[in-house]
Specification:
This protein is α+β, with helices and mostly antiparallel strands and 89 residues long. It is 21% helix and 27% strand.
C-alpha cells in the first residue's frame, strides 16, 4: 500500500479567541479531492495553515507527516522544500 500524502495524528488547535479544535486524526491520499467544511471559517483556515506548515499545532504530541516526514520536526530548509509541494484554495 502506498504511503499517504499526509498523515495527521492527534492534531489539536487552540486559537487566541478561544476557538478550539479537539484532537483529530485523518489521512490525505494523493490524487484525491477533499473538502474541509465547518461552522467556523477561522478553524477551517487554521487547519489548512497547520497542515501546510504555516501555523504550528497547539500540542507537541500533534504530528503532521508529509510523505513520511514530520513537518514540524524538520529544519527550515527542509520545511521550505516541503511547502513547495503543498497548495490549497
Amino acid at each position: 500500500m502506498k504511503e499517504p500524502l499526509f498523515l495527521i495524528e492527534n492534531l489539536i488547535l487552540t486559537l487566541d479567541d478561544g476557538v478550539y479544535l479537539p484532537s483529530i486524526n485523518f489521512v490525505i491520499n494523493e490524487k484525491k479531492a477533499y473538502l474541509i467544511d465547518g461552522p467556523h471559517d477561522v478553524i477551517n483556515l487554521s487547519l489548512l495553515k497547520t497542515i501546510g506548515g504555516l501555523l504550528p499545532p497547539s500540542e507537541e504530541e500533534s504530528r503532521i507527516l508529509f510523505q513520511g516526514t514530520d513537518i514540524y520536526n524538520t529544519d527550515d530548509k527542509e520545511l521550505k522544500e516541503i511547502r513547495k509541494n503543498i497548495s490549497f484554495v
